[in-house]
Write a structure and sequence with these properties.
The protein is built from 28 helices and 25 strands. By secondary structure, it is of the alpha/beta class. The strands form seven sheets. The protein has a five-stranded parallel sheet with strand order 3-4-5-1-6, with helices on both faces. Strands 12-13-14-11-15 form a five-stranded parallel sheet, sandwiched between helices. Strands 20-23-24-19-25 form a five-stranded parallel sheet, with helices on one face. β13 (449-453), α17 and β14 form a beta-alpha-beta unit. α15 (396-411) crosses α17.
């Protein structure tokens, strides 16, 4: 682990590790600034952006898809051991080397151990571990890959830091990152004052306090815009011919690169979209035009693409095109609507759009045959000859543009001559197929838009889009699914990645199939965010998912917590679209002193709210086999539940339940099957009995599930067993499934006998021994006892 060094002056940040006295890192907090501090921040901002280390907004919590992806790849286990963290990070971040993994593991262990020392329980620590692991992968992987170099990766955090963000900064610092925090809060950066001691407070004499509106990013953008205008202002009159093209290309490229070092920025989108990356190119062709890709972009990508040539730049002989890849989505609910609206807007301003979905169709036999080729001895000879297949008689200018782009890109492609010939033929087929569709009419400054909806799955697809980016075409590669791989790499590519993800389906085509929201509706949702986010107040059924977590308590605490709403119970926590739901799962054995009457009165106290009471065994009735039970073997394949098959089965009886609750029920059923809790799962066919039992719940239970709100009253299963009668495997499955859904489970066993738990492979109940075992007790009418106890006096004083 790295230790923090004491900073003498701000510009020490730019020293390499080897130049630092103690070979440590710097972690400082600025609360005030003057001219010199601002000048330092601009330089540091430029360095931080190279590592993708500028953080202006809050780091988003992992969403459901990210958590599921983590669980699939790393698993759901957790141990408070350094070796466990080391192995988990090795699985999760395989591109890191051994030293990097070691440093990150030690830093993560250090922070989580501090949480344990503060008295946090294992569930909170585990959830924190998962959150940090997701942040490593989705937010900081690029930074982590630079750890260990002489030039330490830089992070600039600007704003009011949360407790978890502060802990993440500690981990990154101790892993080897330099960190500067521009603290805009008036009373400390985090909600936990202990975290502030890890950052050195830099005092600035007579400095101004950072206002809410202060932004290093905005200041840098203004500076960059001025430099950009000066840069382009001296280029008028540049004309290229085929003879001097290469020489001018080199001279202009070198001159541009020198200024680009000061100017080029990973442009962050205004407003909510602030973390894109600008990749600028300026290349010339044999025509009197300069391809200036992405250099003019300073705003939100979708809006920038709608700009006409004169709004993009002032130079008439410049082609201000776009080469953009957008992965993930900003707002899941709005994405498809906004995507379709964007395409409609393009078409409404007479921009030709060509949409290719998921994969470019391979060339047909006739297309391949149409490519003339012969024997070649060198790559240069092959490219010079085969490029003559690019013919666009409708417009010779376009033909020249595409030929040059084709030769330039293919010249930089690695591979043997035979491999390059095959690639060239494939790409040529696509060029001759799509160029006529893009350029139905020729105007150098009316850029058609090529939209690829998916991820490049082959080198040939990537080559095609790189070639098109060097022509007067706006190229958009759009993939909302972060799990879809894309092999497209190019130094001029403007790459934007959002944290949210939705499945890659078809590009939205029909306006009728997309729901639009009114201004009043959106205002109401904004109000929801203000009222219902991080306030402890929740809308009815605001959350669609829950992670039930058993509470380990004393018997007395069971009585206290039993009637409490979920959000008032200890360890209740919100994670984006789901909650951690604390539930009771207890077995009460024996009868305390005081006699049976007092015992049954105490049992009746728990008949409260939405409860289901079971007296002795059995719980699940042995009805004749239903058709859905007969077909249960078809509902699981390779340990994966076939949900769609179940829903389409004619005997499926849960279709009236709200859709999100059905999904939740299947999710928990799948978890129960794969947990191995029920003995015989995947060895004696118990998985089939689990499915049939879960799909045969009675109507009263389904009604309780339908109205289950994860933030309010928790539904309950109350079991009383006073006899030697045996519970069945189905009974055990039923109880385990109800617990998985988030029901409180309470079993009273005066005898202390084993009940449903004998079919479980691991401990299930938190057991409370409250007295001596008593046999042959008769269960009275508990509901009547509860009703009598709920008389006028009790209601008056709010007893239950």
């Amino acid at each position: 682990m790295f230790e923090r060094e004491n900073l003498i002056e701000l510009y020490d940040y730019f020293k390499g590790y080897n130049e630092r006295e103690n070979k440590g890192v710097f972690f400082c907090r600025l609360t005030c600034y003057d001219h010199n501090v601002e000048k330092f921040l601009l330089s540091y901002f430029s360095d931080a952006r190279k590592f993708n280390g500028y953080i202006r907004e809050k780091i988003k919590n992992p969403d459901r898809r990210q958590l599921s992806f983590f669980e699939e790849n790393v698993g759901n286990a957790f141990e408070m051991e350094l070796s466990f963290f080391n192995n988990s990070i090795k699985k999760w971040l395989p591109r890191l080397n051994t030293v990097q993994i070691k440093n990150i593991s030690e830093a993560l262990f250090f922070v989580l151990k501090n949480l344990a020392d503060e008295g946090k329980n294992v569930n909170i620590i585990k959830n924190t571990y998962i959150k940090f692991m997701c942040w490593f992968y989705y937010k900081f992987e690029q930074i982590l890959s630079f750890l260990g170099n002489n030039n330490p990766p830089k992070i600039l955090y600007e704003g009011k830091m949360s407790d978890y963000e502060a802990k993440m900064m500690i981990i990154l610092s101790k892993s080897g990152c330099d960190i500067v925090v521009v603290d805009k809060s008036q009373n400390g950066t985090t909600t936990n004052p202990n975290d502030l001691k890890y950052a050195q407070l830099v005092q600035v004499s007579n400095g101004k306090t950072f206002e809410e509106s202060y932004s290093v990013f905005d200041i840098a953008m203004k500076k960059s815009t001025n430099e950009k205008q000066n840069d382009f202002g001296g280029r008028k009159g540049i004309t290229l011919t085929s003879r001097n093209s290469q020489a001018l290309r080199t001279d202009l490229g070198n001159a541009q690169e020198a200024k680009a070092q000061q100017r080029r920025m990973n442009i962050q989108i205004a407003g909510e979209r602030k973390d894109c990356h600008e990749k600028a190119s300026s290349a010339k062709n044999e025509l009197n035009y300069i391809i200036s890709t992405n250099t003019w972009i300073f705003g939100e990508l979708w809006q920038e693409s709608l700009k006409s040539h004169d709004k993009r730049g002032d130079e008439k002989n410049y082609v201000y095109n776009m080469f953009v890849r957008i992965r993930g989505v900003d707002e899941k609910d709005e994405y498809l609507k906004e995507l379709l609206k964007w395409k409609i807007k393009l078409e409404s301003i007479s921009r030709t759009t060509l949409l290719i979905e998921k994969k470019i169709p391979m060339p047909e036999f006739s297309e391949v045959n149409a490519v003339a080729r012969t024997q070649y001895s060198t790559v240069a000879q092959m490219l010079s000859s085969i490029s003559s297949n690019i013919k666009f008689p409708k417009c010779k200018d376009i033909e020249d543009f595409v030929k040059k782009a084709f030769v330039d890109v293919m010249s930089e492609t690695n591979g043997s001559l035979n491999i390059l010939i095959n690639k060239a033929v494939c790409v040529l087929c696509w060029i001759n197929r799509y160029i006529p569709q893009l350029f139905t009419q020729w105007n150098i400054h009316e850029y058609p838009v090529l939209i690829f909806y998916g991820g490049c799955s082959s080198d040939n697809e990537a080559l095609f889009f790189k070639i098109m980016s060097k022509t007067p075409v706006d190229v958009f590669v759009i993939c909302p699914d972060l799990n879809v791989k894309c092999c497209l790499e190019d130094k001029f590519l403007f790459d934007k990645t959002y944290e949210n993800s939705i499945p890659l389906e078809s590009f939205p085509k029909d306006i009728e199939n997309i729901s639009f929201k009114t201004a009043a509706y959106n205002a109401e949702r904004d109000l929801d965010t203000i009222i219902y986010k991080d306030t402890g107040i929740y809308r009815n059924r605001q959350f669609k998912r829950a992670v039930p977590v058993k509470i380990h308590t004393t018997y007395e605490e069971v009585g206290i917590l039993w009637g409490q709403d979920a959000n008032y119970r200890p360890d209740f926590e919100v994670f984006d679209d789901k909650v951690m739901l604390p539930v009771i799962c207890s077995k009460v054995s024996g009868v305390p002193d005081g006699g049976q009457w007092k015992y049954w009165n105490s049992v009746a106290d728990f008949l409260d709210g939405n409860f289901i009471l079971f007296r002795n065994a059995p719980i699940v009735s042995r009805d004749p086999e239903s058709r859905i039970k007969a077909d249960v073997s078809k509902f699981i394949d390779k340990n994966v539940l076939q949900i769609e098959k179940i829903k389409l089965h004619p005997s499926y009886k849960y279709s009236f339940i709200r859709e999100d609750m059905q999904d939740y029920m299947f999710d928990k059923l799948n978890q129960l099957i794969n947990s191995g809790l029920i003995k015989g799962t995947f060895s004696n066919g118990a998985e089939y009995l689990i499915i049939s039992t879960a799909l045969s719940l009675e109507m009263n239970v389904l009604r309780i599930i339908q109205k289950f709100d994860f933030t309010k009253k928790v539904p309950k299963i109350l079991m009383v067993n006073t006899k030697e009668s045996q519970y069945s495997l189905e009974d055990s499955i039923y109880v385990a499934y109800m617990a998985a859904l988030g029901f409180d489970i309470l079993l009273f066993s005066p005898t202390g006998y084993q009940c449903v738990e004998r079919f479980y492979s691991k401990p299930f109940f938190v057991e409370h021994q409250i007295g001596e075992y008593v046999y042959d007790m008769k269960i009275p009418a508990l509901e009547e006892i509860a009703e009598k106890k709920d008389g006028f006096i009790n209601k008056l004083f709010g007893r239950r």
